[in-house]
Design a protein that fits this description.
PyrdxlP-dep_Trfase, 333 residues, alpha+beta, NADH Oxidase, 5-stranded mixed β-sheet, binds flavin mononucleotide, 10 helices
């Protein structure tokens, strides 16, 4: 069975709609979809690039990669085989990918993809401290192989690596707190009016507390965690680093796809996750983070993984821009 031209376009439009739930840095949603008759294009929206923390576009491209993987997951869950052409025109760097349905294609059932698709609606960034239960090596190995399938390395940090990540993350917080542009951008993206449907609600900012690796202070001087004292939180969390051999948009896009795949797979297994990017936002600290890599390479993003303290969501669900603002339908040829 295969889809005719009309149903292909509307199916791609549906998948782009589903992909709007993807996570992005500060919930900036820096992507645009363009639906053509027989393909859908993913474009970077540079107006949504947070230049103070992301001058080169690493975080923007990682975010667009998560959207691309969400789209692929929606299509795979509905049985479609796709052809993905990444960065198809070197002269048009904002066109990040073009995805088309294989035609004539065979509809294939895939339970793994379906489970990840279902997880797209449940996944969220969980910034609460994690439960005092370690994550099994088997599950962590599974996440590593999920990232490898997207051509990206995911390295689990040992105690020494976690210590270095903690020191560098603390350093990043100090450097960024002293940068006026950063402070203004952070304030802007955490205090968006509700109707804007983007940014991170200030209510989702984690309460101040001592953690193994500090969590970004989204709202400086937030109230302390109720009952928080000298006890160190997150003692059973695992920390991992996405990285790769190259430091270019093609590798960042793949790493974003790997990030989405790992977050969804973790959600399928009931694990909680939260990305940590401030350590890669300050060039000198990002360079220092290379010491934890098993081979020469470039760190893209750190991730905290653990068991949630509760299956109840502890905060507001982040909103998404309306499809009308993120999905363009090209006029029929
Ligand atoms: C590239 C990237 C970097 C991120 N960096 C951080 C971070 O440093 N700290 C944090 O708490 N969340 C971080 N996040 C999570 C986003 O803030 C989150 O995905 C967004 O607010 C949407 O919320 P949701 O994940 O709950 O859907 C990052 C996400 C992405 C994709």
């Amino acid at each position: 069975m295969s889809r005719d031209l009309l149903s292909r376009a509307s199916h791609l439009q549906w998948a782009a709609h589903m992909a709007l739930r993807a996570p992005s840095v500060w919930n900036t949603q820096p992507w645009r979809w363009r639906v053509l008759d027989d393909a859908v294009e993913l474009w970077a929206d540079r107006e949504r690039q947070v230049v103070s923390i992301d001058p080169a576009g690493l975080l923007l491209t990682l975010s667009c990669g998560t959207a691309l993987h969400h789209l692929r997951t929606a299509l795979a869950a509905s049985g479609d085989e796709v052809v993905v052409d990444r960065l198809p025109y070197p002269g048009t760097p904002d066109l990040l990918a073009r995805v088309s349905l294989r035609f004539p294609g065979v509809l294939v059932e895939d339970d793994t993809e379906y489970a990840r698709f279902a997880a797209m609606a449940r996944r969220r960034t969980d910034r609460r401290p994690f439960a005092e239960i370690p994550v099994s090596t088997m599950l962590l190995d599974r996440l590593r192989s999920v990232a490898a399938a997207e051509d990206t390395r995911l390295t689990l940090l040992d105690a020494e690596g976690v210590g270095l990540l903690a020191r560098l993350t603390e350093g990043a917080a100090l450097v960024e707190a002293g940068d006026e542009r950063y402070v203004a951008d952070l304030d802007g993206w955490t205090h968006r009016p509700r109707y804007a449907r983007d940014g991170m609600p200030a209510a989702n900012a984690p309460a101040a507390a001592a953690r193994v690796v500090p969590v970004r202070e989204f709202v400086p001087d937030a109230d302390p965690e109720p009952g928080a004292g000298p006890v160190l939180l997150d003692r059973c969390a695992s920390y991992a680093l996405f990285w790769g051999e190259h430091d270019d948009p093609a590798s960042w896009l793949r790493a974003g796809e790997a990030l989405s795949a790992v977050l969804l797979e973790a959600t399928v297994h009931g694990l909680a996750t939260s990305p940590i990017s401030n350590v890669v936002e300050v060039e000198a600290l990002r360079n220092a983070l290379r010491d934890v890599l098993p081979e020469p390479g470039h760190p893209y993003l750190a991730l905290r993984i653990g068991w949630p303290i509760s299956t109840e969501a502890g905060d507001d669900r982040t909103q998404r821009l309306s499809p009308a603002r993120r999905i363009d339908i090209a006029d029929p040829a």
